[in-house]
Amino acid sequence: MVKVKFLLLFLCFSHYLEAAEETLLGFWIARDSIIEIKYCGDFICGEIVHIIVEEGEDPKKILDENNTDDDLKSRALIGINIITGFKKELVLKSELKGGKIYDPRFGKTYKAKLKLLDNGNIKVEGCILFICDGEEWQPLLVTTNEDGTRDAILKNDPNEVQ
């Protein structure tokens, strides 16, 4: 009887782990930054946690200079939320629609779609009317060191032989 309970518990837990892998939550590497998708109150948000820059350049000093709102042009990009409007109940779905995404390269906010792909990446699209453009973000495994710094590696590295 104990073995049966353990087996049932293991099967339930392994299903939970599998479902946890199929979520948009976590750290993602985009074209030039690392985004953390997490819960922000009743919604899902995507915070820029790091910007990839040239050696010697301080990513914390990169400003939102392309923002169409003059009051926001002097804010640092690290720490801003670029994903809004997706309710947190939707996080387990493989495709989200109805939210918005802010693109700091152009300083504009677009209607957004997020889709978890079979390869584990997210397809992130911003749309104007019926015209959409986007990119794939790759998942990262992020560890926090004792000194507060973080290390990150690709979760599904295509160069890694399994």
Set down the secondary structure blueprint.
Layout: H1 2-21, E1 26-29, E2 33-40, E3 43-51, E4 83-84, E5 86-87, E6 95-103, E7 108-116, E8 122-128, E9 131-144, E10 150-154
Antiparallel strand pairs: 1-2, 1-9, 2-3, 3-5, 4-6, 6-7, 7-8, 8-9, 9-10
Task: Give a verbal description of the structure.
By secondary structure, the protein is mostly beta strands. The protein has a single domain, classed as Lipocalin. The protein is 12% helix and 43% strand. It is built from 1 helix and 10 strands. The protein has one helix spanning 2-21; strands at residues 26-29, 33-40, 43-51, 83-84, 86-87, 95-103, 108-116, 122-128, 131-144, 150-154. Strands 1, 2, 3, 4, 5, 6, 7, 8, 9 and 10 form a 10-stranded antiparallel β-sheet that branches. β7 and β8 (122-128) form a beta hairpin. The radius of gyration is 18 Å and the shape is globular. The termini are far apart. The model is unreliable at 1-20 (pLDDT under 50).
